[in-house]
Design brief:
alpha+beta, Type 1 dockerin domain, 3 domains, seven-stranded antiparallel β-sheet, six-stranded antiparallel β-sheet, 19% strand
Length: 542
């Protein structure tokens, strides 16, 4: 049986105005009564996940990890420690966290929940993310993921008598001051809410939702409200460093859970025609999970673009990102900050694509947060191989102004993904996988002719050029394509020659003189006309 969480009623003081920064700073350790300071991400969070709801399926475990981390942050900000037990949350229980609990903590590393006080002090407030065991929903009941309703019926077993504390905030349309929270904490008034108290989730209910393909982001919004927001804690000055975070991977989780979850598309579950920015000449296009191709795991998403040749013209597909349960007040919040994970504007963002349809360009749009900026368009390599497309958040040369008075650079402290955008003028099938944020990625300006990326232009790069010589249409920098026109030819050799770091290189005796080589290539018709410089593509991992 799962461990059951039960929080004693707490008086939640509105103390956050004086903790505006500290409440969101990343905590390397959590001070646990009886155990002292323990590592937050590798020790505390996975063990609480294991002790509190260890047998749940994976999306529920991820939701548990976020709730456990958020509540620990809340108590650390409030009093500097957290109790080990059901009066706060259970950290020590029989055995230690397993690999699945570690995975849930790692997948949500640094993620915490907050809400905007839109009535009183207008502060961003870290919430007290209450959770209890709750009643066990009937697994055989009909479930509509788009209209979930209250998932617990009067006959569902509630052995812990904790269902009375559970709130169905999303289903009941409670946002802002209308969300009075759970009776586990002090309940404020509509005009003066106790903002940290946004309700209580059910562990059994979260497991049911997870088994019905609801993502952890939507599980959290289902219980705490559509206006709840998710962000990574700020790492600057804390000594905390996050690893690469896969935002969406389209997989099912049968390999690491009970096998019942059908999988989900995370924040990219909408059709590519959802956005009004998508052109009318691709009206029949679709986006569906596919087991035909996968860069990792067992699934990707197939973007099937159906082009209207009669209408003609170039198309734009704006494939927007946003949680399912983020809409409120009669409006859609897709492609907004409130509907997406907010992460620090460091490192890089990107994704992997695979297609054999030529003539496509791709970009990623960022909510920055009051302006809109878009990554410079990259040519999509149509070689039916998985290719990584990456933009560096702190490199202004990777961005252009797009909408909302964008300024062509990423300058917000926290940003979200607005959309992935494809441009072209014909039918296309494109597989999308592993949308990521890599906070440790560092932009390294490429020296023309440095084909192996070691910072030197030397004989090793000449060897790469010789190996790739004659490749046309799909060559990358690593193949010897210095001018990034898709071809490896004499013009790339000349770039290498101009930037040669060391004049006297061993092993070059067999290389023809540049003029001789140039004439020979022209004679063979192998020297292609130099094309327009294309944006840099990251090499594929094979």
């Amino acid at each position: 049986m799962r461990a059951m969480a039960f929080f004693l009623p707490l008086l939640l003081a509105l103390f956050f105005a004086s903790h505006a920064c500290a409440q969101f700073d990343a905590l390397p350790t959590i001070n646990v009564t009886g155990s002292g300071n323990v590592d937050t991400e590798s020790d505390y969070v996975p063990n609480v996940v294991k002790c509190e709801n260890g047998l749940a399926s994976f999306e529920a475990l991820k939701a548990q990890a976020v709730a456990a981390r958020t509540f620990a942050y809340y108590k650390m900000n409030l009093q500097g420690f957290i109790n080990d037990g059901t009066n706060d949350q259970v950290y020590s229980c029989a055995g230690s966290a397993g690999s699945i609990h570690q995975q849930a903590a790692q997948a949500t590393e640094g993620e915490i929940l907050w809400v905007r006080d839109n009535i009183g002090s207008q502060n961003d407030v870290l919430i007290a993310s209450f959770y209890v065991a709750g009643a066990i929903p009937d697994a055989n009941q009909p479930f509509d993921i788009n209209a979930p309703g209250v998932i617990v019926g009067p006959g569902d077993p509630d052995s812990t008598n904790t269902e009375r504390f559970v709130t169905y905030t999303y289903t009941n349309g409670l946002t802002g001051g209308l969300n009075q929270g759970s009776t586990l904490g002090f309940v404020g008034m509509t005009t003066n809410p106790n903002w940290p108290n946004r309700g209580a989730s059910s562990q059994n209910g979260a497991d049911f939702l997870s088994d019905n393909s609801v993502s952890y982001l939507d599980i959290l919004k289902y219980y705490y409200g559509a206006d709840i927001q998710l962000r990574t804690a700020t790492t600057a000055g804390t000594g905390v460093n996050y690893g690469l975070k896969t935002l969406v991977n389209f997989d099912d989780y049968s390999g690491i859970t009970d096998g019942t979850i059908a999988g989900n598309e995370g924040t990219f579950y909408r059709e590519p025609t959802f956005s009004g920015s998508t052109s009318a000449n691709v009206a029949g296009s679709t986006a569906e999970r596919s087991s035909v191709e996968a860069r990792s795991g067992g699934y990707s998403q197939l973007l099937d673009i159906t082009y209207d040749e009669v209408a003609g013209g170039d198309f734009l597909v704006r494939h927007v990102s946003g949680t399912r349960y983020s809409d409120f007040g009669g409006s859609s919040n897709a492609a907004s900050r409130i509907a997406n994970l907010q992460f620090e504007s460091i490192g890089s963002v990107g994704f992997w694509l695979k297609t054999d349809d030529p003539g496509l360009q791709v970009s990623i749009a960022i909510d920055d947060p009051t302006t809109g900026d878009r990554g410079l368009l990259k040519q999509v390599i149509a070689d039916n191989q998985w290719r990584k497309y990456e933009w560096f958040l702190d490199e202004s040369s990777d961005w252009e102004a797009w909408i909302g008075a964008g300024n062509g650079q990423i300058d917000g402290e926290n940003v979200t993904i607005d959309s992935i955008q494809l441009l072209g003028s014909s039918d296309a099938q494109v597989y999308l996988d592993d949308i990521f944020w890599d906070p440790q990625a560092v932009f390294v300006p490429l020296v023309p002719g440095d084909f192996n990326g070691d910072g030197m232009v030397d004989g090793a790069d000449l060897f790469d050029w010789q190996t790739g010589l004659g490749t046309t249409g799909s060559a990358e920098i690593s193949d010897g394509d210095a001018d990034e026109d898709g071809d490896v030819d004499g013009s790339d050799f000349l770039v290498w020659q101009r930037n040669l770091s060391t004049p006297a290189l061993s092993g070059l005796e067999s290389v023809p003189e540049p003029n001789t080589l140039f004439i020979a290539l022209v004679g063979l018709g192998a020297l292609a006309a130099k094309r327009q410089w294309a944006p840099r593509l990251s090499p594929s991992a094979h």
